[in-house]
Amino acid sequence: MAKNAQNSSPLAELIAEQKLLCEEVGSAYIEVSGDDVVAVAVHTLNKDPIVGIRKPAEGEENVSWYIYGGELEGADNFETMTVRKMQDICPEVLPYLALDVGYRFMIDADDYEDIWKEGEEA
């Protein structure tokens, strides 16, 4: 007996949301693993908006996402963590993590959302 879509797992739902988001903004879908590493300015996540920037992967940990809250000030003390840990502290960013290199997103507590590719700002 085949499973129907109503019984899909939270992971399957997240992947579907990521693919749809990528399609809507014209981005390639880049598969995300729970073990992928992101750089997060954790101490800023209580500020609006939450901003994410995907750059070409660098360093031993292959970090490509930089996520912070509010205005970026200098290096802002980013710490690395897995996507799995990010899910625990800031799950609202997970749908955006499949965006391709060069994309940015900005979200806030009032459901504001903006997604753009560097160099293609309106």
Structural class: alpha+beta
**Which radius of gyration do the C-alpha atoms yield?**
15 Å
Give the helices and strands as they follow along the chain: HEEEEHEE
Query: pLDDT below 50 for ≥5 consecutive residues: which ranges?
Result: 1-5
Cross-sheet strand order for the largest sheet: 4-1-3-2-5-6
Q: What is the 3D form?
A: globular
Reported for the largest beta sheet, the result is:
6 strands, mixed
Helix content: 10-25%
Relative strand content = 25-35%
How many β strands by DSSP? 6
Query: What's the number of structural domains?
Result: 1
Overall pLDDT: 89
List the total number of helices: 2
In whole angstroms, the N-to-C terminal distance is 49 Å
Question: Secondary-structure blueprint of this entry?
Answer:
Layout: H1 10-25, E1 37-40, E2 50-58, E3 63-69, E4 79-82, H2 83-89, E5 103-107, E6 113-117
Parallel strand pairs: 1-3
Antiparallel strand pairs: 1-4, 2-3, 2-5, 5-6
